[in-house]
Design brief:
Layout lengths: L7 H25 L7 E2 L5 E2 L1 H15 L20 H21 L1 H9 L2
Antiparallel strand pairs: 1-2
Helix pairs in contact: 1-2, 1-3, 3-4
Length: about 120
Amino acid sequence: MSQVTDTPAVARRRAREQRVISQMIALYCRGRHADEPQHDRAFCGEPVCADCAELDAFAVKRTERCPHMATKTSCNKCATHCYPPAMQKRIRAVMRYAGPRMLLHHPLAAVRHLIGR
């Protein structure tokens, strides 16, 4: 559930960021964990393994609670790091793998994410 103070534009951006990070995690899981059973569903609706489902739920929850959504450009440039170091390491691995591949699988989402809109 989004913060009560969200304007409609911020609420749309929050929902879009949740969907994009979830799509990235699902893409990473499909490429890196293809041998593992993918019985869980990511926030975006795509199948993921249990490990990636945990990361997806964590990332979606953190995006939901981000107090800087109206002004931030990207999480790595944010002054407040809300991911603990272990989760930062995991999400960086996802971004490194899925970022370039998003242009093929979800081109509109990738471009919007890159320009920060």
